[in-house]
Amino acid sequence: MIEPEASVTILEQLSQMGVLVSVDDFGTGYSSMSYLRRLPVDKLKIDREFIREVMSRPDDASIVRAIVSLAHSLRLKVVAEGVETAEQLAFLQTLGCDQYQGYYFSPAIPADDFAALVAGSRPRGGPLTQGQVMCTHGKLAA
Question: What does CATH list as the number for 4-134?
């Protein structure tokens, strides 16, 4: 991001090739609202710091709620990082969060185990349908 205009050009080319672009750890560090205007972004990933105490800290819940609302109003998908409990997942589902990552689904696993997990989740007898592919895509890929 040292040269923002060059980054925009590269990311637009990648997007045209079908690569999805996500803003990781949204709400912390170097993530910025200006990225949402300037970069061809498909997804926002809510940083695990907000998810960790979303059930016990009203401010964290408000931040998560605002990020999901903002993302959806911009036709972006939202991924919550660090989901570890059924309560966190249920809260995110009420907000309409699109995807989640975390130990609630699975702890980190070796690459071979991951490949088997993905292979087992695909429909037998063929590739993914267009609908299955599009459910993970944001406005650019669509």
Answer: 3.20.20.450
